[in-house]
Amino acid sequence: MNPIEIIGAVIFALALLHTFSAKFFEVLAHRHASHAGLLHLLGEVEVVFGFWAFVLILLMALVSGGDAAVAYAESRQYTEPLFVFVVMVVAASRPVLEIVAKILAGLARVTPVPDAIALIWFGLAVVPLLGALITEPAAMTLAALMLAPKIFRQDMPEWLKYGALGVLFVNVSIGGTLTSYAAPPVLMVASAWQWDSNFMASTFGWKAALAVVFNASVITLLLRRHITAEPGKTKQDERLPVPLTVSLIHLAFLAGVVMLAHHPVFFLGLFLFFMGYTQAYERYQNPLILKEGLLVGFFLAGLVVLGGMQQWWLQPIVSSLSPFVLFFAALGLTAITDNAALTYLGSLIVGLSEQAKYLLVAGAVAGGGLTVIANAPNPAGVALLRRGFNDESIGALGLLLGALPPTGVAALAFLVM
């Protein structure tokens, strides 16, 4: 190991500590109005890793020189942060949201339960499984915006909100395993290990689907007493209805972004075209969530920069463990490092058995809801839902406790079935 690797590990540990204490800064912001701006900034979970990534690059420049720092920053792969930003903005556009809401509302009317309860179950089960087609970040965005007014509101008990958030994060993490391209930790190994979508559906997907349905059903039962009927029409509902053609064009943009997910030059170009289209038909639009999307992209880019310096201590751990120990190690390590980074390190190990490969990925996706950094779509959920929590901030401990039960269900599904 060299001094830069040690500095990188220390900065990563500080970033983790900052992430887990973000809610504390939000509490301080409400108590000390004179410094509220700075404290709110420090309490923004989405800012944390980007901020500490800048600190790392500055220290790297001081220790190794500016050229080395620039070379390292430019050597990182930023496709995922860019993709998550773009897919969040497109998926959250009004025409996409409304057509998805109409389809789910139609399905809710034919269920034997009240529409409001059925829609919550759809948001926690069906949309996360849909992520296997439209990618997990898009599924997280749709589910979060659907569920925000129904669950994540001030009059809902805080423990139930954390329970629902944990279920959403875990279900999105495991729901993408029905295909080989939708879940970031699967994508990292699919090519190296020749795992196609048929393999994923038959090996991981059906188990994940059972766990998703179980998790969503349990939390919906707990929520049912606090769920009210859908509110009446608001002024927003009185705007011009979105024509079907406009919704279909937005869905085509979303499909194009998903298909081009590994080619940032093309999906960014398509996104610019999308921006122009929304301006041309502004009367059918809501304000795009550009700020939220950029913050999430900033968070993930910071994680890419900081995560690149952790291979020296992570890879020996991953490569030295027996298969079943590897499963639980992946489950735990995912909570403190992105699960895609963990499986990527696994893909570099030569001679890993098929059982070890399965258990590594199973542990990584099962633990994807434990913290905000465990899975790439989680920061998107935090950005869109945190205003519904006390102090408009999501506590790391609350999320961990809320995610533990559905994580246990997912782990059992992958280990026992």
Key traits:
417 residues; mainly alpha; 2 domains; globular
Give a verbal description of the structure.
By secondary structure, the chain is mainly alpha-helical. It has two domains: 3-75, no CATH class; 79-416, no CATH class. Helix content is 72%, strand content 0%. α18 packs antiparallel against α19 (354-366).
Summarize the structure.
With 417 residues, the protein is mostly helical.
Indicate the topology.
Blueprint: H1 3-20, H2 22-31, H3 36-43, H4 45-64, H5 66-75, H6 79-91, H7 94-109, H8 115-134, H9 136-147, H10 158-175, H11 184-190, H12 197-223, H13 244-259, H14 264-280, H15 290-307, H16 311-320, H17 323-333, H18 339-347, H19 354-366, H20 378-385, H21 396-416
Give the number of domains: 2
Say how many strands there are: 0
- In what range is the share of β-strand residues? under 5%
**Overall pLDDT confidence:** 90
Oligomeric state of this protein? single chain
Overall 3D form: globular
Our Rg estimate from Cα atoms comes to 21 Å
Largest sheet: none
CA-CA gap between termini: 41 Å
Helix content: over 70%
User: Spans with pLDDT under 50 lasting ≥5 residues?
Assistant: none
Q: How many helices does DSSP assign? A: 21
Overall SS class: mainly alpha
Strand/helix succession: HHHHHHHHHHHHHHHHHHHHH
